[in-house]
Write a structure and sequence with these properties.
By secondary structure, the chain is mainly alpha-helical. The protein contains six helices and three strands, in the order H-E-H-H-E-E-H-H-H. The protein has a domain at 8-79: Arc Repressor Mutant, subunit A. A hairpin with a 2-residue loop joins strand 2 and strand 3. The radius of gyration is 20 Å and the shape is elongated. Belongs to the BlaI transcriptional regulatory family.
Length: 149
């Protein structure tokens, strides 16, 4: 996965609306999209110039959040990563700049507001991660993933 230049939490209102439209189209199997398709979708709820949407989509492409492919005289756009992948990358970026005790504290505060269902999901995800780590350790003979024979 490419590291986007712009984190999801730093998107402006229109950028987020464009990304939401592109992500939604992707989940519905309507991706990639033209600027016209995104403009038509967004124009249902706000008055926007076509060129404004075109500029925003071009900038999102330059930032690595959208992919761009030529189709005749137009470009088609798709999300470079899913909403979930981009959110996870943003969270990792924020946490990676912290010292270990601060990361732990931040994660504990984050999950402190979790619902019982979210806690169950987290437990299942942690069990899956632990299983993956155990599998990797087993496949390298306990020497770690970077060990050489």
């Amino acid at each position: 996965m490419r590291m986007p230049h712009k984190a999801i939490n730093k998107l402006g209102e229109l950028e987020r609306a464009v990304m939401d439209a592109v992500w939604q189209a992707g989940t519905e199997g309507r991706s990639p999209l033209s600027v016209r398709a995104v403009h038509d979708e967004l124009s249902r709820s706000r008055d926007l110039a076509y060129t404004t949407v075109m500029t925003v989509m071009g900038r999102l492409s330059e930032a690595g959040l959208l992919t761009q492919e030529r189709s005749g005289r137009a470009y088609l756009y798709a999300a470079a990563d899913s909403r979930e992948e981009l959110t996870a990358t943003t969270m990792r970026d924020q946490l990676s700049g912290m010292a270990a005790p601060d990361r732990r504290t931040a994660m504990l505060h984050f999950i402190g507001d979790a619902t019982p269902e979210e806690i169950a999901d987290l437990k299942a995800a942690l069990a899956e991660v632990e299983q993956q780590h155990a599998s990797r350790a087993g496949s390298t003979g306990g020497r770690g993933k970077d060990a050489t024979p």
